[in-house]
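Here is a complete protein record:
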Amino acid sequence: MNFATLRAWSLAGVVCGLVFLADQGAKAAVEAHLVPGQYEEVLGPLELTLSHNRGVAFGLAGGAGVKLVLTTALALAVIGYLFARNPRRPGMWLAVGLVAGGAIGNLADRVRAGAVTDFVAIGSWPPFNLADVSITLGVLLLVYLYMRDAERAEAPRAEAGGG
């Protein structure tokens, strides 16, 4: 493994670890200070609350249990495979670290408590957590990276074709 590859894996690991620690720390702090259903105003429409979600993000697929844990493990394996194919792709380490850290944070909740702790409430949007934010940002970054690469690959063909 060359230095650039090792660096990419290390950076992804650091981001993953930081996301995991921030997510678990925030969840522990909320669990220690709020009771389920309690809302604390933070700023404008942003509130803290405590809820436990047995489904996926925003309460979808509630009660999926073991299937959801296995689906998460499969998604992590796919992300790992994509990263292993080209870990030196610019920005890929960040996207993978964000997705993996968030997924592992929520997976830890599911294994430990059978549900994910959600605590961020904005308006009528269902409560969510830092892991959900991290996964969402990571997936958006992955989509951007793949679209950018597809555009770059298409550009020379369009130029060669005269149009």
Notes: Residues 139 and 163 are 32 Å apart (CA to CA).
